[in-house]
Amino acid sequence: MQDKVTFEYAIVRFMPKVEREEFFNIGVIVFSKRKKYLDIKYHINPKKLEAFSCEITLEEVTKYLKAWESICKGAPHGGAIGEFEVSDRFRWLAASKSTMILCSPTHTGLCDNPQQELDDIFEKNVL
Fold this sequence. Notes:
Blueprint: E1 5-14, E2 24-32, E3 37-42, H1 46-52, H2 58-73, H3 86-94, E4 101-103, E5 107-111, H4 114-125
Antiparallel strand pairs: 1-2, 1-4, 1-5, 2-3
């Protein structure tokens, strides 16, 4: 139990029309303060995307998610947010939004390996 660390995660959702509140899961963000870990994993099912919105392309959604990925990595091209502390970047990404890409409420847990948790949560909730 001593090797376990706390982690937080949020499910990334695609909601093309926020007024309708219809969405499908496209990714997961996992954060662990002790491990200084923040990463996102995503997959957009093209058939679901087309069923939800014919106006938004796969390339557009992918572009937004790549920006989120840059923020997770703290990359210079992640903008000013990419320069924030790891915990602040997670809070900014997971904050409540009225946009087509948004997150579920955050959830917490204990784990040995945040990367493994990201993979497991992704497989259970996105694929």
